[in-house]
Write a structure and sequence with these properties.
Distance between the termini: 56 Å
Radius of gyration: 20 Å
Shape: flat
Order of helices and strands: HHH
Mean pLDDT: 82
Number of domains: 2
Number of strands: 0
Largest sheet: none
Number of helices: 3
Strand content: under 5%
């Protein structure tokens, strides 16, 4: 019985957290283009963090070079997405 109660409490907490996270997005309507831009930006930031983590552990010079090139490309694209001219 206690196990079911704990599961319900956890489910309620997850639902409450999701509803809090969605409230601000519901207040400001976003165009489909802006939504796609934000999704791409989020994806790039995630890729950047992953590359940085891999770079911390990379030892071989050629592997580090590949990671740095990828990081440079991602940072360039992030900068383009963040520029006000878009």
């Amino acid at each position: 019985m206690a196990r079911g109660w704990e599961s319900k409490a956890v489910a309620d907490q997850i639902e409450e957290g999701n509803s809090r996270r969605l409230e601000p997005a519901e207040k400001i309507p976003v165009s489909p283009a802006e939504h796609m831009r934000q999704e791409r930006l989020d994806s790039l930031l995630l890729s950047k963090s992953r590359l940085l983590q891999q770079l911390e552990h990379a030892r071989h010079p050629s592997h580090r070079r590949v990671l740095l090139n990828g990081l440079s490309a991602i940072e360039k694209e992030i900068e383009e997405l963040d520029s006000p001219s878009q």
